[in-house]
């Protein structure tokens, strides 16, 4: 599979730094005040480790504030979101694992950039 390492999104950028048959590792940078879509995945779980900045995380029915060296685990099928409420860019490492890791395994429920399906 050929893909660009740096992928730009309205909320920031991610860099695919490693991948294998059942895992993928990304370095994600979220701009100040930006939020990724409220979403879930059918085929992968994710581990998020904050490197710098502050992450406001929705993980199922829990809302967490994570800072440097803190992490959370998002199981397959759990609705989640990530936001940068801080004053510096949020940088985190995301480790995806599962049977399918394609970017099309995203079900968006809410998205401030117009990428969620209309009701």
In short:
The chain is mainly β. The protein has strands spanning 6-9, 12-19, 23-30, 38-40, 44-52, 55-59, 62-66, 71-74, 80-83, 90-98, 107-110.
Write the layout of secondary structure elements.
Layout: E1 6-9, E2 12-19, E3 23-30, E4 38-40, E5 44-52, E6 55-59, E7 62-66, E8 71-74, E9 80-83, E10 90-98, E11 107-110
Antiparallel strand pairs: 1-2, 2-3, 3-10, 4-11, 5-8, 5-10, 6-7, 6-9
Features:
globular; Jelly Rolls; mainly beta; about 120 residues; three-stranded antiparallel beta sheet
- Report the portion of residues in β strands: over 45%
| Most strands sheet | 6 strands, antiparallel
CATH level-four homologous superfamily name: Jelly Rolls
H/E series: EEEEEEEEEEE
Q: Quickly give the CATH architecture.
A: Sandwich
The CATH class designation is: Mainly Beta
Main sheet strand line-up: 1-2-3-10-5-8
CATH structural fold name = Jelly Rolls
